[in-house]
Amino acid sequence: MHTQVAIIGGGPAGLLLGQLLHQAGIDNIIVERQAREYVLARIRAGVLEQGTVNLLKKVGVSTRLEKEGLIHHGFQIAFQDESLHINLTNLTNGKNVTVYGQTEVTKDLVEARAKEKLLTVYEADEVTLHDLEEKRQKVTYFHQDNKHEITCDFIAGCDGYHGVSRSSIPQSAIKEFERIYPFGWLGLLSDTPPIDPELIYGKHVDGFYLCSMRSMTRSRYYIQCALNEDINQWSDDRFWDSLRKRLPTDLQMNLVTGPSIEKSIAPLRSYVVEPLRFGNLFLVGDAAHIVPPTGAKGLNLAASDAHYLSEALIEYFHKNSNAGIKQYSSQALSRIWKAERFSWGLTNLLHRFPGQTGFDQKMQEAEFSYLKSSENARRVLAENYVGLPY
């Protein structure tokens, strides 16, 4: 088989890139190592920047999003028993975010691709990338015990942190930047109404918590936990009790509990690789960067990467210009590092760090006090939360 762009990875980054390229008349094939059902079942976050929403509208997959998505004009930061409302709309000249689960985004993109009869190979084993520095590349894989080969002009590595794309680049050709945080998030999903119509990011002496939702009947809650926690030791009752203890007094009575649909522990990491290009292989999404979920930037950065790369490839195939291809890495990294800074800052403000000193605590208190007293500080926070312009 031959295609213009081989996309490795069938998550939101690869699917969105595939739709953007297809809309521009550029052939692409997606190769995914997991089964279709596995991809569709993955539970992920779902706070979408306006830029992400606009991209989904652009590729024609926004019907359900516009019907079911929850537009949020603000969120709350609870610091011990104090609370601060961040009015996104007022602070950003009318911008907002939309709560719509990444699982639902994936479903919409998968359905759109199937409707267009575009090829996605699921359950591809032993995916290998060849000739990355040559004019034409090759992707080989096994499917149902048969070996297959795709030749292509470019490869987009959208297969996540543990995927084959980044590991196919020689270590001498890239530089990695990483911070691993000494705690995780214990998350619980339940069919219960959310505690508040808006998200609440909280700081308590016991650690961070987040009150979020997927809809007005399905809630997603997180509490900070140790990395070595055993999920089997966390009954639903223990989780609800721990969360309730961290909530401000005026919110505790609003908490509606119920059986969990899913519980999991997620580690927190900040990670960026540079550059995002090796030969004719481009890294997109989690293959290129990881952000702690505190700032809700993971999916949104994947979307902006897909935007930048699609524009570069469209320029190449339609205008015979490689200017955009040359600029992709620096252009995407500029936005990536700003999002990393934002997520790192919120993580430092709202979490309890092992060995935290009195000075560290006072710095967190001073940061929160400054946010409360300064509209300009709140505006900076809001501008980053709704998403910096492409």
The H-level CATH homologous superfamily of the largest domain, spelled out, is: FAD/NAD(P)-binding domain
CATH topology group of the largest domain: FAD/NAD(P)-binding domain
Rg (C-alpha, Å)? 21 Å
Q: Helicity level, as a percent range? A: 25-40%
Provide a short characterization of the protein structure.
By secondary structure, the protein is of the alpha+beta class. Helices cover 38% and strands 29% of the residues.
Characterise the protein shown here.
- By secondary structure, this protein is an alpha+beta fold.
- The protein contains 13 helices and 19 strands.
- The protein has two domains: 2-72 and 96-179 and 269-350, FAD/NAD(P)-binding domain; 182-267 and 353-386, D-Amino Acid Oxidase, subunit A, domain 2 (D-Amino Acid Oxidase, Chain A, domain 2, 2-Layer Sandwich).
- Strands 1, 2, 8, 9, 10, 11, 17 and 18 form an eight-stranded mixed β-sheet that branches.
- Helix 1 runs parallel beside helix 6, helix 1 (12-23) runs parallel beside helix 10 (298-319) and helix 12 (358-373) packs across helix 13 (375-386).
Write the topology of this structure.
Blueprint: E1 2-8, H1 12-23, E2 28-31, H2 36-41, E3 47-48, H3 50-58, H4 63-68, E4 70-72, E5 74-79, E6 82-87, H5 88-91, E7 97-99, H6 102-115, E8 120-121, E9 125-130, E10 137-143, E11 146-157, H7 164-167, E12 175-190, E13 200-204, E14 207-213, E15 219-225, H8 236-246, H9 249-252, E16 260-274, E17 277-278, E18 281-283, E19 289-290, H10 298-319, H11 323-350, H12 358-373, H13 375-386
Parallel strand pairs: 1-2, 1-11, 2-8, 5-13, 11-18
Antiparallel strand pairs: 3-7, 4-7, 5-6, 9-10, 10-11, 12-15, 12-16, 13-14, 14-15, 16-19, 17-18
Helix pairs in contact: 1-6, 1-10, 10-11, 12-13
